[in-house]
Amino acid sequence: MAKPDTMKNASPAFGMALLVVSITSTQVGSSFAKFLFELVGTEAAVALRLSFSTLMLFLALRPWRSVPRGAAWKSVALYGLSIAVMNACFYQAISRIPLGIAVAIEFSGPLLVATFSSRRAADFAGVALAVAGLALLLPWKGLDSSLDVTGMLYAAAAAVFWGTYIIVGRRAGEGAGTGAAAWGGLFGTLAAVPWALCMTGGVLIPSAVMGEALPLALIVAFAASALPYGLEMVALRIVPPQAFGVLMSLEPAVAALLGFLILGEVLSFSQWAAIACIIAASLLVTLGRRTE
Q1: What is the pTM of this model?
Q2: Among candidates 279, 215, 229, which has minimal Cα distance to 21?
Q3: Contact assessment for residue 65 and residue 179, using Cβ atoms and an 8 Å cutoff
Q4: Among 36, 122, 152, 178, which lies 20 to 30 A Cα-Cα from 61?
Q5: How far apart, in Å, are the Cα atoms of 17 and each of 10, 54, 64, 262?
């Protein structure tokens, strides 16, 4: 990775390219997680992803150089728990509904966080667009939606905990600096692993599938967590906030596209329309902040 002073002189275009790679990597990791589900189940997949990604983050960030103190541990612990629950709900969702749909529903979490303290008409219009998109995903009579309701509810829960993750993540970052992600991952792992062991009878990776599951778990941890975090850390320093938000708004579409290419998930017209509404809502909220 380039030195910090080099990053300050890097062009925004370079940062945007890193962000595109980050978004793509995240959704590739989520796609491969579906293959991991078939071998070890969703609970074990969450535990393995958090365990391996936390190890990678500890090696990369060396967070022991900035150990949280006092009340900061509470924020870091809440941050880690929100990571664990958010990922658990999201993986339960994508085990039942297409990846692009789950990401679109989950995207409503940070969108609502962005508008809670707002008084701008554009933000309320964005929420209205997001609600319209979510409404298109419901199994109304006459529409071609056939989504699993339980999967949609899990995606909605993931949205709630994504919003929580943003709020408590800011506090954790203030108390633990760049090491917050690693310390939070550790708390998330300590929550996810015992739960997974209870649900799987004490075995995260059965010996019969060790040769397939272990490489998949490493790929998922690296692609969905470790690599995107590192790239976004750099991109945040050189990409203007509005451009960052615009690119992140495209994540549901990227998820839907990779869901089709990797998993063969074909979406209906109404489902694509729903994703478009949610992307438009995020763009409206993001671009509207230029005037502030």
Answers
A1: 0.87
A2: 229
A3: yes
A4: 36
A5: 12, 25, 31, 22
Write down the residue that tokens 């994508």 correspond to. Answer: 94
DSSP code of residue 267: P
User: Which pair of structure tokens corresponds to residue 172?
Assistant: 């954790």
Question: What is the three-class DSSP state of 204?
Answer: coil
What would the pLDDT profile of 213-237 be if each residue is shown by its tens digit? 999 999 999 999 889 887 877 777 7
pLDDT for 250-278, tens place per residue?
899 999 999 999 999 999 888 999 999 98
Q: How many CB atoms lie within 10 A of CB 240?
A: 12
**Distance (Å, rounded) from C-alpha 236 to C-alpha 254?**
20
How open is the CA angle 85-222-282, to the nearest 5 degrees? 60
Of the two residues 25 and 232, the one the predictor is more confident about is 25
Contact call for residues 53 and 225 (beta carbons, < 8 A): yes
Estimate the share of the chain in helix, then strand, then coil, as percent rounded to the nearest 5.
85, 0, 15
d(CA 165, CA 40): 26
Whole-angstrom distance, CA of residue 147 vs CA of residue 139: 7
Give the residue among 162, 178, 184 at the shortest CA–CA distance from 76.
Answer: 184
pLDDT score for 9? 61
Q: 241-249 and 269-288 are packed helices; what angle lies between their axes, rounded to 10 degrees?
A: 170
Q: Contact 182/53 with Cβ under 8 angstroms?
A: no
Supply 170's token pair. 């800011």
